[in-house]
Design a protein that fits this description.
The chain is an alpha/beta fold. The protein is built from 7 helices and 13 strands. The longest helix is centred in the last third of the chain and has 27 residues.
Amino acid sequence: MSSFTPNGLIVAHHGISVEVLFDNNARRMVRVKRNSGHVVGDNVVVTGEILKRMPRRTELQRRDARGGIHLVGANLDVLGIVVAPQSPGGFIDRAIVAARSAALQPFLVVNKCDLEGTAELLAELQRLYGGSVPIFPLSAARQSGLAPLEKFLSEGHRGAFVGTTGVGKSSLLNALCPEIDLKVGTLSSYNSMGRHTTTVSTLHALAGGGELIDTPGFRDFGLVDITVEELAEYFPGFEDHRDVACKFRNCRHRTEPECAVLSLVAQGRIAAERYNTYMEILAEVETLQAAARSRDWKN
């Protein structure tokens, strides 16, 4: 007779097995196929060695540089975008758009604020994104500036930190949840960027409330299944135009007449650099949509 275990939550994914935390606080490893589709944050029912995944409220995906699609986590409601000096450009905008399109609230974590040059980075990020998303400056290594972020997460949020390799995600998780003791990579002498050492996706409960999923580091955040309309609506920095609607509901903010965004760019209320970044991502999204339509047509 097969044993039945009540609903559980996947709290770690090891590739060929997952760790499930059950309602009675018991834990168990369950073997899965490498490409099973299960992800940390999934609610499941376990019957013997079979996992049945329950419907997801939300899911966050990303595309890597080779075009591969990866599921970052399930049933999240916030996304922390971790940046530090020398983080590559473009990552923040794509992550914010991806979060908003997945019905998650994005926020920025500016780490390594003890390092030289971070004050300039923080000022620039506050100028570009201060009106779009919450920003939390801190130093995980020195455990300074953590209180506002801890308070935010304690409001019952389940989130994940995303960031390129070396921004200090593991150090940040260690500071927020010391008992997990994630290994932290040494700094490269050439660019002060650490080697990300996390290889297993895991979910951690914070002492003050809230949950965080830790995911392996990655160098890019390509958009997945984002429409042109979603990009136009969710791009950070375009929020100011919502009180003055574009003439056309599906306006792409390129050359359309009576476009509110183009008007704000002309007035200087939206910086030209923000608009240029939007146009770069718009071209990417249009290319992806055209490729998807071509595949559908061939099939």
